[in-house]
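Incident log entry.

Two folding requests arrived from the same account within the same minute. Monitoring flagged them as a possible duplicate submission, but the sequences differ. Recording both here for audit purposes.

Request one:
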Amino acid sequence: MKLINEIAKAHFDWVESKSWHNKSPLESIALIGSEIGEAVQEVFNKNDSLRDLEIADIYLRCIDLAVENNIDLDENRKKQITHYHNFNVSNYGYHVVQHLAYLTVPLAKLANTTRHEKLPKEFSETLINFMLEIEKISVYNHIDLINNVAEKIEINLTKDHKDRIR
């Protein structure tokens, strides 16, 4: 598997080239929440391929937030991999929409970690755990997260984003 840091750096550079790194961590978390909503909408639309790309968007926003805050994803994921193994997706239902709705709980905790002038160590741990939960939810629901992330990056590279706020 490609290292997450490699994917993150490539995505971060693209976001930087668009001058979109003009937001606070809390605003980034709000955008992650909006991606969760978009993924849920695609579940209701019964469009699995768009749902999977929206889940990739959730993950891409997380990795961008991590790079922006100097979090080494590969190293921190190794340190916290026990969280992945201990996270029991079926505790939160048996359908992907239930799993996506569950993500709002750790997202709220992540938002609360930004309420400091300097982000605490808890911020990176909470972000990594959130990402590990996305990975586990993807595996549980037979979603190839890394391939969808790669596909979403390709789509983003070819998409016209002229009207976006910088």
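Request two (distinct sequence, not a duplicate):
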Amino acid sequence: MLELVIAPNAKLRIQTKPVKKVNSSLIQILKEMVKLTKTFKDPEGVGLASTQVGLDGAFFVAKSGNSPAGEFISVINPKIISTGKGTKKYFEGCLSTPNLWGEVKRHLQVKVSYQDEKGQLQTKVVKGLLAHIFQHEIDHLNGIIFQDRVLKQGSKFYKFTGKDPAGADTFEEMTI
């Protein structure tokens, strides 16, 4: 059973190693990672990198669309080939740092290559939320957590403080 690694655990700073072979053991781990990610509802889990479950292979799972079924893709040995010119600041969080959020500027579009769960090489241009997820998870595979980006970009941190009477999330700006 996989367990989520919580910051400041040093496992989140691991530089992952390329996966040499896609096999049944890896496929099982990827399935367990999807199950674990789906357990997070508030906030919703949309991606999970190997380092977040204490592993050192270069792979992650990501929610691939807005479908209610919550379809996920498995991404093995990912590389960002190129980035689009446009960027946007996103309000970003991470399952490994509960209740901490920050503003992170990321590319709106990235061209990526990776192997899927069949070991087939995929090259795609991903946009919007999926592009954001790819960049966040690839950062994890390189030992970078979103707080590093917030600090480097001189952005702000926020702490989740609960729900307002209407049920909306409330946040408080943090000074660091």
